[in-house]
Amino acid sequence: MSERPVAEVPPAPSPLGAEVFDSHCHLDIMVGDRKASSGDQVALAAQAASGGVERILADARAVGVTRLVTIGYDLRSSRWNAETARRHDDVYAGVAIHPNEAHAATPEVLAEIEKLAGEPQVRAVGETGLDYFRDWASHDDQQASFRAHIEIAKRTGKALVIHDRDAHDDVLRVLAEEGAPEVVVFHSFSGDAEMARRCVQAGYVMSFSGPVTYKNAAYLREAARVAPPELVLVETDAPYLPPTPHRGKPNAPYLIPLTLRCLAEVKGTPVDDLARAISANGERVFGAW
Fold first, then answer.
1. CA-to-CA dists, residue 120 to 63, 124, 153, 224, 259, angstroms
2. C-alpha 163: how far from its chain's center?
3. Mean pLDDT (whole number) for 12-28
4. Among 54, 118, 243, 269, whose CB has the most other CB atoms within 10 angstroms?
5. What is the pTM of this model?
6. Cα separation of 179 and 192, whole Å?
7. Spatial separation of the C-alpha atoms in residues 259 and 264, rounded to whole Å
8. What value does the mean pLDDT of the chain take?
9. How far apart (Å, rounded) are the C-alpha atoms in residues 163 and 288?
10. Residue 32 — pLDDT band, cuts 50, 70, 90?
């Protein structure tokens, strides 16, 4: 890797022995397509250090993270990510209106999201779902938007990528009421072992991110133990949620090995075996690369 500003971004971990991919990141935020607010210090640091999409991909490849899925959260972001995936064979995109922006999910906007979801390089409808931690959008607006995205995923045959924050019961209820798409992914899984069991019973995929490595997140490690290898993915949510020991610094796909190694230890599985299982899951969830 080329030299990077040590004070601003974490050093690269040791490379993996088997290839894996990042199932959820936000390239547009990392490279500064969407200017970060003054209070978003992590995004500001990521943007200051970014050398662009090609640099991000090269740094990831150097440690064995050979592909990634970049996820939209509003119409502009979804358009940008779809276009970026169009230009890079090792990048797929997800398109959606984030639950925090659910008030913007008008019929016209949702029609555009569905049009984008039909493009071949777009392999997911997301991130959508429910966020009861923040009050940026009403619960009613969030649930209406979530239901609309579920239908878009079913009509387009794409995976549904769910943002679920402090809303487990309602997310599962809405999925049951609407009838879940064939493939459902809980991004940055935040539930406990019981929530994981409910997901296993329904066949939902759980994608684990940096917090599974945090000292105060034993409940996530218990959930990871419950999740069978065929229902596990790994992600960064970059530039957010960096794994230990880099909390407070910008995350990036090249840090996937730290989270993957934690998951492998928790599950008592060789790291390379888990990487291979996750790569196979990725092809089942998002389609062949």
1. 27, 10, 14, 31, 29
2. 9
3. 98
4. 243
5. 0.95
6. 23
7. 9
8. 94
9. 24
10. confident
